[in-house]
Prior knowledge:
The chain is α/β, with parallel strands linked by helices. It has 13 helices and eleven strands. The radius of gyration is 20 Å and the shape is globular.
Amino acid sequence: MPSSKAVLRKLNYELKSVAALGKFFLKKNDLLQQMSLALPMLSIEPTNVCNANCTFCAYQHQDRPTGVMSMELFRKVVDEYASCGGGPLGMTPTVGEPFVDPHLLDRIAYARGLEEITSIGIYSNMILMDRIGAETVVSSGLNTLTVSASGFDAEMYERIYRSTRYEKVLANILDFGAANNAAGRPVDFKIDMRIDEPWADVASTEDFARVAEVIGEENIIYKFRFDNWAGKIKSDDLSGNMQLRKPSALRRPRISPCSELYSGPMVYWDGRVGACGCRDVNATELIIGDANKEHLAAIWMGAELAKMRKEFLTSKVRDICKNCTHYNNLAHLLRADHADALADTTRPMQFGDALPAAFAGQASASQPLE
Length: 370
């Protein structure tokens, strides 16, 4: 059973969500207008190759070609993002492992050299972190590193991640945590555990205590409910007390297009651009352009994404979105504790000379939402 503190945190979260729903209907039009002029974040898939085969992940169902993004394309896309004003950069694939990418450090260094890039983050299973070295990664310019891991137990890791490299992962986590501490914690380092046993049992293990001592228990979170990846993941794929998340009309009513359609583009390794970086595992169903041929802002401000947003609450909504349990409405941005997310998502693009003339002068002068 979750701890009493966890239950209280969850209750507080739900109460704030209810309050945000009330605000949404009052501010909906202004919110949509401001969000339509923003490019809040850029996500880039450096590679769609992974070195694990997690039971809860649709990587196992990927059937598109695998590859690594060229540095030329990477620089083009990041430069175009910077020319619009920039912001956060994420280099976590829809499915894949960032440390598999042989150019990861070069990409971080290039993006860090652009003042418009405000932060750089990745999500990793840490199997290959030692190939680069903890101290090198800590000093690379990376701002956030979140680790996908099971509970700290070799048998659980093999069940869920279908990998025998638990000891290596544990060593890499401990090494990185120590190096990050020694450097003054320049990287926001967290562990996001996927567990199939009760939290109390997981938290009582010796290896959990070792990790918590290095990075702080407050930086370890856990999940036992999982998305179905638009039907690709079944209950039978999961183990123990892992559960598929159920759609909830009460908790996340479909009162707006999905927030993913406003959070920023996903540029896949081959240059295709997706409207959602979370669930289009084969990069086919939510494609809105090609970064090899078009300017990033022109794609994000283009007709295909506008059409997806308009059709989302109609019978024309894409099949992948119809029963997606990852859906979240836009009301969550109006939560009292989501002020930073709201500011990012409504920050208008800063149009520069590099953009097509058709987009010049479109920045909104409307006032920030409160």
